[in-house]
Design a protein that fits this description.
By secondary structure, this protein is of the alpha+beta class. The chain is built from three helices and six strands; from the N terminus they run αββββαββα. It has a single domain, classed as Aspartate Aminotransferase, domain 1, CATH 3.90.1150. Strands 1-2-3-4-6-5 form a six-stranded antiparallel β-sheet, with helices on one face.
Length: about 150
C-alpha cells in the first residue's frame, strides 16, 4: 500500500509510560468503527493485552501461532500480540511492522517509534481522525498481521 502523507501536524504523545496519544484523538464513533473493522479482519480475535493498560484490546490470531520472531510481537515470549488498540480515551494503536515499513509510516507522519521498542519494529500509529485515515490504519494493521504470520 502506497502511504500518502498524513495531513496536519503530529499529535502530542506522552513522554512517560504508558505511551499515550494526548491530542487529535479519534471521535468515540470513529474509534468504535476502528475496533469493529479490526476485529472483522480474517482470522483474528479480541483479547486482553498482555502488555498494555486494561482498556486496550489485543489483536490475537484465532489459531494461536508460534511466534516466528520476537520482533513481530508486542509481547515477545508470550501469546503472539502483533497489534493492540488503545482505549477510547487514547485511540492510538501499537503495532509491529518491518523496520523499513515502520520508517515509512514515521516519515509520512502516521506514527512514531514505540516508546519502549526493543527491536525497531514496534510503532505507535496515531488514532484516525476521519474515514480516509481509518482506511490507512486498517491497512497498516493488516500489514502488521501479515508480518507476524511471516508474510
Amino acid at each position: 500500500m502506497l502511504l500518502p502523507a498524513r495531513p496536519g501536524t503530529r499529535p502530542l504523545v506522552s513522554t512517560e509510560g504508558p505511551q499515550t496519544q494526548l491530542t487529535e484523538r479519534s471521535s468515540p464513533a470513529l474509534w468504535g468503527r476502528l475496533v469493529a473493522r479490526t476485529f472483522a479482519l480474517d482470522g483474528v480475535v479480541e483479547g486482553h493485552s498482555q502488555v498494555s493498560p486494561p482498556s486496550s484490546r489485543a489483536v490475537f490470531f484465532v489459531d494461536p501461532l508460534v511466534e516466528l520472531a520476537a520482533e513481530t510481537s508486542l509481547a515477545p515470549g508470550q501469546r503472539l500480540e502483533p497489534v493492540h488498540l488503545h482505549g477510547v480515551h487514547d485511540t492510538s494503536i501499537h503495532l509491529c511492522l518491518p523496520a523499513a515499513r515502520g520508517a515509512e509510516v514515521v516519515a509520512a507522519g502516521w506514527g512514531e517509534p514505540h516508546q519502549y521498542e526493543d527491536f525497531g519494529t514496534e510503532f505507535l500509529l496515531y488514532g484516525p481522525r476521519d474515514e480516509r485515515e481509518l482506511d490507512v490504519a486498517i491497512g497498516l494493521i493488516a500489514e502488521s498481521l501479515a508480518f507476524a504470520r511471516g508474510a
